[in-house]
Amino acid sequence: MGWPEEVAARYRELGLWQGQTFGAMLRERAALHADRIAVVCGDRRWTYAELDARADRVAAGLLRLGVAPGERVVVQLPNIAEFLEVVFGVWRAGALPVFALPAHRSAEITYFCEFTEAAAYVIADRHGGFDYRALASEVRRKVPGLRHVLVVGDPGEHTALDEVRVPESERDAAVADLPEVDASEVAFFQLSGGSTGVPKLIPRTHDDYLFSVRESARICGLTPESVYLCVLPAAHNYPLSSPGSLGTLWAGGRVVMCPQPSPDVAFALVERERVTITGVVPPLALVWMQAAPNTAHDLSSLEVLQVGGAKFSAEAARRVTPVLGCRLQQVFGMAEGLVNYTRLDDPEEIVVTTQGRPISEHDEVLVVDDDDRPVPVGVEGHLLTRGPYTIRGYYRAPEHNRRSFTPDGFYRTGDVVSLTPEGYLVVEGRAKDQINRGGEKVAAEEVENHLLAHPGVRDVAVVGMPDEYLGERTCAFVIPGDPAPRAVELTRFLRGRGLAAFKIPDRVEFVESFPETGVGKVSKKELRALIANTVRSTHVRKDS
């Protein structure tokens, strides 16, 4: 499902879609910034000219292997320079990357390869103690149509990426044979951010995605002097394009690949490379803020900390500038399209209490009730959106598309939000994060925000737990600080803040960490399952 032709024509007339492909964008940037550093990975520093040449050589090598334009290539690489080399090479070959994450394992990768009829699968040999070559061997046994496995590093029984690149001496001749790529066609497949089931595939075109990249770079103030630290998994939508690695390259800046998000690794890179901007998820922001006062590393170059991927509480948001000495920019978006930013010149109250406003005046945003009727400003409702970079349908998912898109093309995001009079979104949570406690609706994020104000709470996640009488009660999973509070103390604290009695958690569980999804978000699905199992086992013991 794509944009109606009359809508696409309007976006072109307005100059939103400019007919440029990713391969052409890099070529243009390499001509402008040939000798500037494009990407840093450990001790390696590639210029724009070198990245451009590497992409050509990979593209030519893929074509020689028989990977045809339009075929799919599953890319599962960690935060290394080869990630950019490979995806630009795949684009130049006219093939389509399918972006997998390092955390994916056999079930997901097998599904991606089967569902997209992938011709090739690109991996690192090992990362984080995991051997991806063994995973690839398993996938190939299950997916006979997967013709090639290409490995960065020791290939084992597969093919080394080093063997695929054509020699530099053959580059010019190979470039002449590269296919013409249509910017209006699908460029790649992202993965849906949902935490249930196998991710759905999100088709993005060169035209729509590059519009969001260009506008994101502009909104975030990127210049050739910008240095972006890629901390989150590089293939995820947020660190890829908001403004991410692609926005940084569009601006002529430098991308620094961070192999681990921990403060000791990331802070060292901030100091060494004089990083100016990076993007993290709320749990990581909290960890960084806890570590920053005691670090020996110089973080003074950091100008902007983006926090996105999930709701960032106002209590935590207010601490970013005092603790890290940089501006906070909240980001709220989705791989399906719509991206919102607080602006760098917004008043502090907007920055800490909202999740921003859309990239473009051409983004259409509706907030509606359960019957799709618009709600007044300031009232919570379901977020629907359509626009020049929001998809009109998932790949080969007609049943899901009927549920997720309105007949006139609005995407049902599944988010519960309210709008401020200025047009900023306040994220109240996911629809499924609303806890129905005997008919009283409890917004998990509201309770989390209050608990985070307690000095003994480092992080918190509130979920529903099954209850025979009320249907659901609330459970707060708390990562304690030092000293750790008691549950009764937190209950008393919430009452003291004037929180309604039905919103005070019925149960508090202290934990050392939260389970996470593959992109670093708190997995509330796992937390709900954990407390449900605990409740069931308690009932069994009582009945015994």
Automatic annotation (TrEMBL):
Signal peptide stretch: none
Pathway given in the UniProt record: Siderophore biosynthesis
InterPro entries for the chain: AMP-bd_C, AMP-bd_C_sf, AMP-binding_CS, AMP-dep_synth/lig_dom, ATP-dep_AMP-bd_enzyme, DHB_AMP_lig
Record Gene3D superfamilies: 3.30.300.30, 3.40.50.980, Luciferase, Domain 3
The keyword Ligase is annotated on this UniProt entry: yes
Domain AMP-dependent synthetase/ligase, residue spans: 27-395
PROSITE patterns the UniProt entry points to: AMP_BINDING
Positions of the AMP-binding enzyme C-terminal domain: 446-521
Keywords, ordered alphabetically: Ligase
One Gene Ontology MF term: ligase activity
Superkingdom field: Bacteria
PANTHER family cross-referenced by the UniProt entry: LONG-CHAIN-FATTY-ACID--COA LIGASE, NONRIBOSOMAL PEPTIDE SYNTHASE PES1 (EUROFUNG)-RELATED
Protein name, UniProt field: 2,3-dihydroxybenzoate-AMP ligase
Species of origin: Streptoalloteichus tenebrarius (strain ATCC 17920 / DSM 40477 / JCM 4838 / CBS 697.72 / NBRC 16177 / NCIMB 11028 / NRRL B-12390 / A12253. 1 / ISP 5477) (Streptomyces tenebrarius)
